[in-house]
């Protein structure tokens, strides 16, 4: 089975994957918003997602997960989808506040870079037709699409920023 969804919030995506697992759908592969599932026993697996520090971290990460009885299911860019057999004790890769702060700060930084790239693309898409005096209808469509993606990415950045701030305030109150 294939399902298409776009998430800008890793926690919401994990929640959805775990709901799918409760229905008997085991993630097999992820690519650009497409989730490929196989059938499994209901509630057989629990999922989490990690964002690697770099592409080079993958093999070490995969080995560490295997040693921890966690299966690496799929990888896209620096995102890694992992699961383990559900023992009903919960499953979370990052459990202490410091590691959560570091993890969500990495994701926030990725959103920030993507947002800056989108703004540059938006600027180019606006300025070039103005300079050459050839603004066409298609340019307005491109501008609207780029602006939409920039706003969505900024929303992802804002969510991660809020999560980081919440973890920092939790840490300070301890």
Query: Number of helical segments?
Result: 4
Average residue pLDDT = 94
Low-confidence parts: none
Number of domains: 2
Reported for the largest beta sheet, the result is: 3 strands, antiparallel
Total strands: the figure is 6
Helix content: 40-55%
Which structural class should the secondary elements be placed in? Answer: alpha+beta
Strand order, biggest sheet?
1-3-2
Shape: globular
Distance between the ends = 45 Å
The ordered H/E elements are EHEEEHEEHH
Compute the CA-based radius of gyration.
19 Å
What portion of the residues fall into strands of 2 or more residues? 15-25%
Describe, in short, the structure shown.
With 174 residues, this protein is α+β, with helices and mostly antiparallel strands. Helix content is 55%, strand content 21%.
List keywords for this structure.
174 residues, 2 domains, 6 strands, three-stranded antiparallel beta sheet, 4 helices, 55% helix, alpha+beta
